[in-house]
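Progress narrative, work stream C.
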Amino acid sequence: MKLIVGLGNPGKEYTSTRHNVGFMVMDALADYWHVSINTKKFKGEYVKVKYQGEDVILLKPLTYMNNSGESVIQVMNYFKIDVDDLIVIYDDMDMPTGKLRLRQSGSAGGHNGMKSIIAHVGTQNFKRIRVGIDKHAYIPVVDYVLGRFTKEQQPLIEKGIQDAKEAVITILDKDFTAAMNAYN
């Protein structure tokens, strides 16, 4: 069983903000599988699908970004999911808008959602897909990540979201190395 987590913040005021790219990728995967992520449990919303004979859970933690790990660890414990089967998708300000970076482990890199997951899971050795949101030198970090994409950034992030969705499918069809080779 695989657990795919997209990070974001709940609530209409955060919809389509840069910090919610993980939620956007979850929605793209749900659309791909013709399902809705609407079961509320484990401090999040999730759906379980069957793909290529394997159970796959799509999870959107509803704890707000800084406490994402609370939801992730509850799902992992309940479904007995090994950390090797965890994939987290989140935004990264240090990459151009829409660019992907897949890694099999690493630090939180200053991302509070990742800090929370690492603290709750007890390791930083889990797979992640970072989606670039760029950064702006003159806008404070919080204002930037909670802002919406510009008209110029919109086609770039839409491609990034589709690429991240395809990277997940590649991971499930082949393996993480194949996805890294294709999308890094």
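Work stream C, second folded protein:
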Amino acid sequence: MNMKVFAAELVGTLTLVLFGCGAAVLAGEFVGQLGIAFAFGLAIVAMAYGIGSISGCHVNPAVSFGVFIAGRMTGKMMLTYWLAQFVGATIGAAILFLIASGKAGYDIDVNGLGQNGWGAGYLGEYSLLAALVFEVVATFLFVVVILGSTHAAAPTAMAGLSIGLTLTAIHILGIQVTGVSVNPARSFGPALFVGGHAIEQLWLFLIAPLVGAGLAGMKARIGFLEKDAA
């Protein structure tokens, strides 16, 4: 196991959960949906330049899966990324819970921890089908941008910005639908602490992002994300 890569992905995913979910839990009433969307996007921008040279800053099992399907990493390395990402998300959620519970009146059953979901009682109360379609399509588009932005022919110095802004746009669109996952680890960490309904619905946020990322990886693998040779 490459410990530098493991540490980078752990810290990166921890940061994404702490900043993104933290903005929703600790500051949502002040910054609103747009502020939460930018918190997720800016966390990715920051980590892209902070750990990108070490691990590529996947901080998302779906991204690593898409990269694997595209033929840009081995299955063994993907599993290292996955382990680091799930551990990092869990630690990030634990830190957020410790901070949030320091406020008088905070109740995880009422205030949550930025967990994902759908249906009655959850944000916009969208249906299961709507949640499934959104997560598959949004992850597909997100990974298309990532694979395109990090391609050898792309101006990779701007990759972190393009990827972060794409995640911001996805959150602006989809927070009311599912809270936006597009990342199984990001969903796993908060759900582990919230339990109950969040755990019951976790399956969608583990499977749908992998489906979307796999489709994006296949497009890259067969050359649809590469320009024709001159």
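The chain has one domain: 3-221. No further action is required on this item.
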